[in-house]
Amino acid sequence: MSSRETILQRLRNRTGGELTVPECDFSVLVRDDWSTKERIERFEKMIESVHGEVHHCTEDMWMERLAEVLNTRGARNLLIPKQHEIGQSLRTAGRNDLPELLIYDEPIESWQSHLFNEVDASITSTRGGIAETGSLILWPNEDEPRLMSLVPPVHIAVLRAAELYTTFHEAMKAQNWAAGMPTNALLISGPSKTADIEQTLAYGVHGPKELIVLIIE
Amino acid sequence: MSETAEHTGHHIDVKEFHPRAQAAIHDPKIRKNFRSAMDGLMSKRKTAFEGWDLETLRDLGANVRLRALANLPDLLEQLEKKLIENGIRVHWAVDGDEACRIVRDICKARDAKTVIKGKSMVSEEMELNHYLEEQGIEALESDLGEYIVQLADETPSHIIMPAIHKNTGEISQLLHEKTGTDLSNDVEYLTASARLQLREKFMNADVGVSGVNFAVAETGTLCLVENEGNGRMTTTVPKCHIAVTGIEKVVPSMEDVSALLALLTRSATGQHITTYFNMISGPRKAEELDGPEEVHLVLVDNGRSSIYQDDELLDTLRCIRCGACMNHCPVYTRVGGHAYGTTYPGPIGKILMPHLIGLDEGRHLPSASSLCGACGEVCPVKIPIPDLLVRLRQESVDGDKLHPAKVRGHGAKRSSMEAMIWKGWAWMHASPGIYRFGTGAASKFRALQPSKAGAWTDYRTPPKLAAKTLHQRMKERGQ
Ligand code: SF4
Q1: Is the same domain home to B142 and B170?
Q2: Phi, psi of A126 (to 5 degrees)
Q3: pTM for this prediction
């Protein structure tokens, strides 16, 4: 008998007999409807409490803010999506206050060490955010691959205020995650960090040292 | 090579709990490191649940886990089906050795020489690192705490914070000796050095091995909780990702995950959520530009299906490995994780390890507790840990030949002397005449009471018998 069958059979022929299935009432996870304003405030508070940064932007001026953010950090380049409108508008804006724009359009194998060693910052879209925990929802794809939000030392994420949910529970229901998930989905709630050395917080241990959120209101 | 060859484990002798606990209690560094860390974690947990109806949330957590366990075999099959549809390969292992061999075979098939690892307690349980090393495959831990512990050739002393027993100076010294970094108490510098060292390793590793926090049957999704990003690196950069997990980790849907996640991170470290919540549902698709080409899941039983047989012991399998029970345990806080000598220390270790190693080897574990109940009160999935400890204590002295107890190695702690004394005790208490005679005689000859009563009086003054028994006094009062 295979190990699979051995295990399943042992579980099926439980000596204790059938187990009762309890009711699960998820209403405790449902938060009173927070207004958009409350959601933004909570989101900002949570992100800042974990060393992230939030900038309030509008459709018209987010690029300006982005340029400021990058310039104060002396970023030499910025990794942008190719298809997504964020990338499109950056490329067509013709601004001279932005650093060199890079595109992730080749398999990682062909430029791994460049990505790991030479890219200073990246910008990605989000599929919304979660106010209660200060989280960003990312579904990486071929246009914005998984490593974009992980390898560069600065990750900038664009979040539309209208897509800010109250809780994770609400977000997954509203977006119907049960219908199917992408190969990789992420909640990102701050820059990479560790407290493994005597409980002292240090940022950027493996992932980005900084997480900057541009909220478009 | 023989397929049944057991690999040589790096077991500490679990039976030596008492001398190790003694040594730890007299080690001011251990006392201080654990005390301050645990105090901090306890208060952070409390703050993190502010504004939540914690009892109702814990009820939900318990029910979600119980529901999953009630359907465990079906859910495992559903999970397997869904994962295969998603392109993830599924393997089953009855024990740690088989799981190790599965990982080895996947590595060998890819001609892999180096494995980078994300945090996985199940792989600690399997002693995977040593096994792979014996097979000529380098296995390197990438979680900073695990990395430190591995460099020191130690085992984790806490399931969430593996290197909590070390202070900055020791870590600096260790990194200096093993990796050539400068001696420094600057945690930023030490962390940045480790980042550099490990980034090289991520880029060159052939295989990434990780654990799993929740496996979702409905969508075929493996969920990983972490702060550092090493888990994401491990599961994204190498061409092949192998996830290992206990069979109890499966839940029906993402909705269940939302409840457990709300409880897990707050209970563990007092965080509302961890930096990364990584949900993996498949290998890289043809059009995608990164991610592993191959994803495997190894479902490990290793004693879990035995625990599953018994209605009471089954509750052990609800555990989501948050570590809150150890953070709040007065024994763990004082002796630290290494004193237990087991993969999982603290209260969860005391109720889980006897099943994995047998009650003969783990005989001291259920007794290493004051039964104060703190663990049961904080457990996010309401595991009645103290009740389970009592049950295991019973099993460890079990002598019932007709209805023998269930846990492997039961009865190992039974002493015929002790059993006789308790039999006598029961007999005396069941016969009023003998009871009165016995207590009366004890009071009368109380001067003969020995001043030492074994280990009990090592740290305590011996209780003195009163001059008169309670019965005598009541009689004198005319009642
Ligand atoms: S037994 Fe409960 S408190 Fe302890 S680690 Fe498991 S879930 Fe957490």
Answers
A1: yes
A2: -135, 165
A3: 0.93
